[in-house]
Amino acid sequence: MIRKLTEIDRKPLMALLIKEPALNLFLIGDVENFGFEQEFMELWGEFDPVDFHIKAVLLRFYKSYLPYAEGPFDVEGFAALLRKDKDVEMISGSSEIVKAFGRIMSFRKEKHLYFAELKEMNAEIYSGLSAPGTIKKATISEVNAICALTDGIQEFESSSEGSRKSLHQTLVSGTGRTYYVECQGEVVATASTAAENSMSAMVIAVATHQAYREQGLATRVVVQLCADLLAEGRSLCLFYDNPRAGAIYKRLGFQDIGAWSMMYF
């Protein structure tokens, strides 16, 4: 049985999600930060017919969907919800789960990434790269300056207006933070978190200005960002598809824990 979830389902839902807290970072963060009664967000759960515990969940966050299941689940039942949404743009999640939708639905494009987690920083890297006083924490006043950098990064897909709106909302809501390095009044390196929750956070938007690359600036920012989150008792997660970038993250202490897929309608 699949039905829409409400506040009364919080405890059994979290019991499911914390079984794999890293992979469920977005789900946990959205429930903790926004609850169940939001126009831009909905949650459905599939209940086990024997003991009625939640065995699978589907999140809608604006025009994107994210499924999670601890084992076999009603793919067709969740797919029916997606088909009813005329505005749906994508579905993402653990590759094993998302690929189940790919067998019964058509997509125009798909992207697959490595998923890595950091629980403990490489102490040698941290002591060698940290530079107290040179890395700043952004406020909403720095949104335009930071986005002026990220808008020029080809790998980033968000529009100029969309990136500013997203960063502003994240900083205001406290669901993420951004650190940056400035040179001659210009932001030249930055890294952010998103989906911060009580257990973890996602590292995103790591970028360096073209003229300042090969100096380790982005690595310094990521190191400081991760060190601060770890000191708060949270783990860090990130996606990557570039083996060179993956090697850098692994030097910091990140370890691959799975694969992540995004399927675009």
From TrEMBL:
Q: Which Pfam families match?
A: GNAT_acetyltran
UniProt entry keywords in alphabetical sequence: Transferase
Ranges for domain N-acetyltransferase come to 138-265
Q: Which GO terms describe its molecular function?
A: acyltransferase activity, transferring groups other than amino-acyl groups
InterPro entries in UniProt: Acyl_CoA_acyltransferase, GNAT_acetyltra_YdfB-like, GNAT_dom
Protein name, entry field: GNAT family N-acetyltransferase
Q: What is the originating organism of this protein?
A: Paenibacillus monticola
